[in-house]
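Review box. Two proteins, two foldings.
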Amino acid sequence: MPNCQNGKISELDTSACVGYGENSHHSMIDLQKILIEIGEIFHHSIEKVHQSGQVKKMNETQLDPELWKSIFFSLHNGVIVMDKNRKILSINPSAKKLLQIENENWVGKEIKVLIPETKLPETLTEGYSSIGQKMMIASRQCIVNRTPLYQNGKRIGAIGVIQDISEMEYYRNLSKQMESIIEFSTDGVYVVNSAGITIFVNSAYEEITGLHRDQLIGNHMSKLMEKGFIDQSVSLLVLQQKKRISIIQTIKGKKDVIVTGNPVFDEAGEIEMVVTSVRDITHLNQMKLELEKAKSFSHMANHRYTFQTENANQTIVFRSPRMKEVYGKIQQVAPFPTSILLTGQTGVGKEVIANLIHNLSDRKEKPFIKINCGAIPEQLLESELFGYEPGAFTGAKQDGKIGLLELANGGTVMLDEIGEMPLLLQVKLLRVLQEKQIYRIGGTTPRNLDIRFISATNQELTQLINKGRFREDLYYRLKVVEIHIPPLTEREEDIEELIHYFFSYYCDLYHIEKQLAKETVAILKTYSWPGNVRELRNLMENMVVSIPTAIIEPHHLPLHIYDHHHASPETPFTLKQRLEQFEKRMVKEALQKNKSIRKASQQLGIDHSTLVKKIKKWNMNTDNSC
């Protein structure tokens, strides 16, 4: 082996040697080995070499010193070489960058001055290597490997290799934090890999199910089913169907939990794992009520369509062919930015239809602003719609105001009661529809708009045109597509559906358990509903909150509805008949509230015998004792 020559690191030839301690046979390895070992410290198991005390013989083929210099200065890890006098022989660019001394020259200076906490002098003194030591350098978390440097069997210095692990530590700590969050979540979390084998279970799952993670981790879901731990596996269903699935699962045949399996896909689109959330529903009474409600209405699901908008109070329920036709038209035109005119009587649900159109369009994430043209005073309507510039008129805000049309840019505007819009504003609205621009009051700069207009009215706009109260050109601009919503008298098939829907909705909303008697529903179905869906909805709320009994009987209905059912158009009720009907209602309610006829007569303020006669006259059934 060639002899070592003294010199600085930039001039080191191929005879410098490194050992792993004085007890490691003092194997002599040239500079080639020094550089190769430095470059491979973190990519190969140098610790094993150190522990065994063995050093592999390297190919002693001589390479160009300039090549080794390039290798030394190109290493990703920082390298510092110290001589026997504890002075820096050489420091590569990676180390300079880490130590933030890129524009400084430290060669020949004491290493303790540069790194006061360095242990490299101890490595020189003791002759032992230290591998994987953590150390803070320039506020960065680093791993330092220190090795003594030998020449001709003599210890002439030491080499320190520094690797910045700050980012690795950050992600390691972040991983620990996320694991802690999942571990202490109140919901159970259960994770399986792509093969269906359990790889993680949190504490909440153990508490909910009574199963310990040692019983689960490493086991396939099918095996856990065979053992009777669970009756079915949502994880296996997710792996089969490749989508989120929720089921009710029974744990050890005793406890019911609701589990939702969520697939986690890799970059290739394959399932990498399934993460399942688990919630105990044993005591969730609300869930039970929802399930019971779903079962009770399942028989009505045939040929009925329900479409939920963002507002839970606005649900479209229908069964009639007329409304199916309306909905088909909505589906056809909703994706396009076309202007739509909704017509129909008061209370038929024009605003709900407008909500549905907006939510079926690609603008559903954008603003949806509703403007009642008849509710805003004419003097304010223009400034509300178009906004104004600072100082546009007396009383205007100093910083101006943005109008409703600007606020709705990119979204949808509903102009309710469009027939009430003043003629002057109709001209401005027409310009907006034609030019897709607006001018604020007092402004001279046009502002571009992208708005979908939905107009609604319960008036005949053609009659208003003939009277000179509505512009014909605006009418045709708004009526690119017209959708007429029929009244309840033209879609009687929907009445019963709406009755049951709204009655159940308000029972659920107010946490009240009530029922409608069949006779009551029959009477409601025959009523003409001049107020349409709005009247029907309000009546259902009224009966749920104002009638104390659990069953709504016909005599609980408002008089105008009850009388409408019993009277024929040819022979309307006389005053005497109306009084008798009212008296019947009073008697029936008193009998329902009291356990005996005697107490009912006392409540009514009449003699007991008189009440008995009336019961016989009207053929009322009662099980109450006298």
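Next protein.
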Amino acid sequence: MFEAAVSTALRGVRIGRERWAALGVGTRDGVLAVLLAPVVFAPLTAPVGAEFGDLPTRPYDLPGLLLTAALWLPLTVRRRWPGACLAVIATAFAIRELAGYPATFASVGLYVALYGVGAHGAWRDRGAGTAGDQGDGDHGYRGTGVRGGDVRGEDARSEGARGQGAPPVVAVGVGVVVGVGVASVLYVLFAIGLHGRGSPQGISDFVLIYAVLACCWAGGRAVRSWRAAEEGRRRAGVEAAMARERARIARELHDVVTHHVTAMVVQADAAQFVLADAPDRVATGLEAISDSGRRALTDLQHLLGVLNASGAGREGDRAPAPSPGTLGELVAHTRAAGQPVRLTEHGERRPMPSAVELAAYRVVQEALTNALKHAPGHPTHVQVRYGHEEIEVEVTTEPAPARSAVPAPRRAPVRGGGHGLVGLRERVGVFGGELRAGAAADGGFAVLARIPAGGGA
């Protein structure tokens, strides 16, 4: 019973926080200002507040009530317009002090406004593109190159710097120095006014008060810097995730497209080569080209289905992911392209994670693609060994060419981007496996991959 009550209470708190966060910044600040009203006017707390001049007090009148309201009502826009909020509150506070109205709890609005300027003030470092210039987590900073969670590049930063005429950091520093200087001058004039009205406070007292006010502003700046660091780390994490995703998509596209396109090019060249001498064999080559195209479309449809973040497509509409169980089809397809390929499987095939099966399939696919591109007509042997803890894939290409069913045409070799084996090493390394590729002892070429069957080391 008690646990159920606690769970219900926590759920209510969580729902309340979510609804509160869904409100706009102005709405939240307005609600807080309204809730502060009873504290401002309550008999117990109303006399508690800041009093700088210690001047003889005068009773409240209508102007005094209006000035008191001006100390806390502007807090409704403390994050939307922090500068204007501070200007109104500071002016009202100075007039109240010089007029000698009694201390009020509403005067704490001065400290809150100073903190707000430090934490949310709109220093116009346009194009700086730093998270430290965000006034709040709910909205972007005015005059910057960043809006909310937008990730802009160095182009935006450099463009902003050119428009400003000075480096962004220098522009921010100048703005801060000018703002602090103006505020300090106004404070000195305020202190002189209090002294002229007969305030017993000395220079050391006014310096101490100034230090307290400066600490409020510095506290806001410290929070702002912390937010900037957090936002910088978040943006760096997003950019790193985007880079990893781009690399993964590029690797998948390379694996899917390169093999089929290479086979189609080789088959088309072979068809042209035999067109004059054996036109009846051209139909076989065209059929193989058509089959390669269909396989490429099937693999691309599967890849697009996996990358479809919306999840609109039904799972049953997607083609199954390639696996070691479909290596026979891959070998037959490569053999139809004119490459003599032999497949040997050792051990009992056990259930494995689909990602591991896909990695093993891609190793064979890339190795056969390289054989088609760089050693057409050379005998190639694919061996797959299923172990208890790992799956081992080995693809070897012999150095001596053999007579293939379709003579290899004398054309420039098909060139790739040079990223296939690198991508395979990354793919295999994700699971704690290893991949080795290089010249074999007999002068051929060998690719060997060992992948943990459990999907990780």
